[in-house]
Write a structure and sequence with these properties.
This protein is of the alpha/beta class and 338 residues long. The protein has a single domain (2-335), classed as SGNH hydrolase (Rossmann fold), CATH 3.40.50. 27% of the residues lie in helices and 13% in strands. It has a six-stranded mixed sheet, with helices on both faces. Strands 4-5 form a two-stranded antiparallel ribbon. A two-stranded antiparallel ribbon has the order 9-10. Residues 1-26 form the signal peptide. This is GDSL esterase/lipase.
Length: 338
């Protein structure tokens, strides 16, 4: 099974990116060039599957300013000045992977795709809030396992052709959603959550391979304790040790399944370290949230390109760009892309 795992690590006063790529089998010589991308996962890769939800700002903020408001040019050459359903100020991880394949951006989302049709570039099934599992009472639209269920059903009914699948690469983007909520999601402990999470990730990669996908990219976890969500109680001065231990054990278990590592690179580029560019003025106030009388309830930095984090958990476009630039060469090597 050809699978590549990659991760970014953040630590120190500034931001240190330690980037790695690993593959089970050498992919220097491949019999095909991937032309299609299928995306599974959570908000690290969601490009608009989660629709606006009336009355629930948390679940619809990605469709409102300041999300997507960076003054950048999109894949069609048009200047983007509006939110596109992405949890960033512009592009997210799936867009950068797509660009490595020669595509302008991530393929169309599952919910925006007409019935009985799959774009030649592929399809994006990722949803904000998706974990490996769905738990009773959760609001998330579709778990990662359920995303693969839909993918499989679309292959069986002919919506996604055999040619689409055999000339594709799959991205499994996981940011640690289950670990952010493990204490209220039915797991008996963090150890139980890690064991079930990593087991399910491996099972999903095997399912994708059995369905005909030959190349699969899988995220390792960034140190969770260094994300704004976990280190806000210290005003971003210190990482949360427990969150980082969870990520370490998670990655160690995946590494056992995906054992071959390549060299890493690191550098410091961003100011304000762990502090996000956009954050609410309170523990339950979100980036972009406003009072009914239009008073802003959030802070927005002057230049998102100088920050790694956009909001509590998601990188800025510049953050993703820095990570994916470091990973581009080993990923292209793995995929056989010139």
């Amino acid at each position: 099974m050809k699978v590549s795992a990659f991760f970014s690590a953040l630590c120190g006063v500034g931001l240190l990116l330690a980037l790695n790529a690993a593959s089970v089998e050498c992919a220097r010589h491949t019999s095909y060039t991937p032309q299609t991308l299928f995306v599974f996962g959570d908000s690290f890769a969601d490009t608009g599957n989660l629709p606006p939800t009336k009355g629930n700002f948390e679940m619809s903020r990605q469709w409102k300013a300041p999300y997507g408001m960076s003054n950048r040019v999109d894949g069609s050459g048009r200047r983007q000045q509006h939110a596109t359903g992405r949890f960033s100020d512009f592009m997210v991880q799936s867009d950068f992977i797509a660009k490595m394949l020669g595509l302008p951006q991530s393929p169309p989302t599952y919910l925006s795709t007409p019935d009985l049709h799959c774009d030649p570039s592929g399809m994006n099934f990722a949803f904000y809030g998706a974990g490996m599992f769905r738990f009773p009472g959760e609001m998330m639209m579709m778990s990662v396992s359920e995303q693969v269920d839909v993918f499989e059903s679309m292959i069986k009914d002919g919506t996604i052709s055999h040619n689409h699948v055999t000339h594709s690469v799959a991205l499994l983007a996981v940011s640690g959603t289950d670990y952010n909520r493990f204490n209220v999601s039915g797991f008996s402990s963090a150890t139980d959550c890690i064991e079930k999470e990593t087991t399910e990730i491996i099972a999903i990669t095997q399912r994708l391979q059995n369905l005909g996908v030959k190349k699969i990219l899988v995220n390792n976890l960034q140190p969770l304790g260094c994300t704004p969500f976990w280190c806000r109680p210290t005003l971003y001065h210190e990482c949360d040790e427990f969150g980082n231990v969870i990520a370490f054990v998670h990655n160690k278990k995946l590494k056992h399944k995906l054992p071959r590592n390549k060299g890493s690179k690191s550098y410091k580029q961003f100011e304000a370290g762990r502090k996000p560019c956009c954050e609410g003025y309170g523990p339950r106030v979100y980036c972009g949230e406003q009072h009914p009388d239009t008073d802003y309830l959030f802070y927005l930095c002057k230049d998102p390109s100088k920050r790694f984090f956009w909001d509590d958990t998601h990188p800025t476009h510049a953050g993703w760009e820095a990570v994916m630039k470091q990973l581009e060469e080993p990923i292209k090597e793995f995929l056989g892309v010139v």
